[in-house]
Amino acid sequence: MSKLLRVAALQMTSGTDVGANLAQAIELVNEAAHQGARYIQLPEYASFWGPASRYREGAQGLDGPFLTAMADVAEELALTVHVGSVLEARGGGRYANTSVVIGPRGTRALYRKMHLFDVDVPNGVTFHESQHIDPGDELVTVQTAETTLGLSVCFDLRFPELFRALALADASVLCVPSAFSAATGPPHWEILLRARAIENGAFVVAGAQVGTTSEGLATHGHSMIIDPWGEVLAQATSEGAEVVVADCVLDSSAERRHQINTLGLRRPTLYAGAVRRYDLS
User: Domain coordinates of the chain in residue numbers?
Assistant: First the structure.
């Protein structure tokens, strides 16, 4: 019998009011659970999404009220809640963009975003996450009762090496909670998510922020769940908060990897070698 897991990608419109964000998150998690989801993923910066000038008031420690409340919800509902990411206070005016997966018994796994969003796109978006956020330096997988999750956050999506490493570590569900920019979202979001799914033979779950905050932070939304063949199983249909749910046949990851064995046919010893350069100009 095929293993089936109902997953939910939550689309949120977070802001600088942490209490309001928590209330929105709990409402959406409960709605997803009511629809039968056993793995529920919030977007990036679920607890606080605002300008750096307000980080000090919005950041919390890992034992703060936002994560404590989400752990209570996970235990009460007896399911896995992936708190997409939170703004974690690290001390000394520095922070981390920290992804937290909470199991049904309240146990936690942590991943800190490795690739920080430092970009300058003319007539698009300028953002330098590293001015205040410290990058993580550890790849993380999480074993749940049903499957193995591979963790990432938003801008990590543009670094396929990370996802290949997670797939090689047996992750069959790749997690991409995001606050993807409204400027780059239309041309890049869906194609990058589907590429990560196809090249690794894995499911991709991407809960996202949507809308524009009062401070002008504009996000693309379009939360998605994608299967190992690159097919979009479900996606957000609104420009507001939404629960996106799909049934994932977990065995199809191994099936697709067997059919197109990109993991097994790799030649990593060659990739680290010198590149022969021809000049025919």
Answer: 4-271
Q: How far is 216 from 257, CA to CA, in rounded Å?
A: 42
Helix axes 160-168, 185-200, angle to 10 degrees: 30
pLDDT grade, residue 129 (50/70/90)? very high
Cα separation of 39 and 27, whole Å?
15
Q: What phi and psi, each to the nearest 5 degrees, are found at residue 223?
A: -55, 145
4-271 falls under which CATH superfamily?
Carbon-nitrogen hydrolase (3.60.110.10)
Query: From the centroid of its chain, how far is CA 130?
Result: 18
In the 8-state DSSP scheme, what is residue 65? Answer: H
* One-letter amino acid for residue 20 of the chain: A
How sure is the predictor about 126, in pLDDT bands with cuts at 50, 70 and 90?
Answer: confident
Strands (E), the chain: 4-11, 39-41, 80-91, 94-102, 108-112, 118-120, 126-128, 141-143, 148-151, 173-175, 203-206, 210-212, 218-220, 224-226, 232-235, 242-249
Positions marked active-site: 44, 113, 154
Report how far residue 210's alpha carbon sits from residue 222's, in angstroms, rounded to the nearest whole number. 8
**Strand, coil or helix: what is 90?**
strand
87-119 tens-digit pLDDT: 999 989 999 999 999 999 999 999 999 999 999
Distances (CA, A) of 163 to 19, 33, 122, 139: 33, 28, 28, 10
Report the mean per-residue pLDDT for the chain.
96
Per-residue pLDDT band for 240 (boundaries 50, 70, 90) equals very high
Amino acid 1: pLDDT:
57
- H/E stretch holding 72 reads helix 65-77
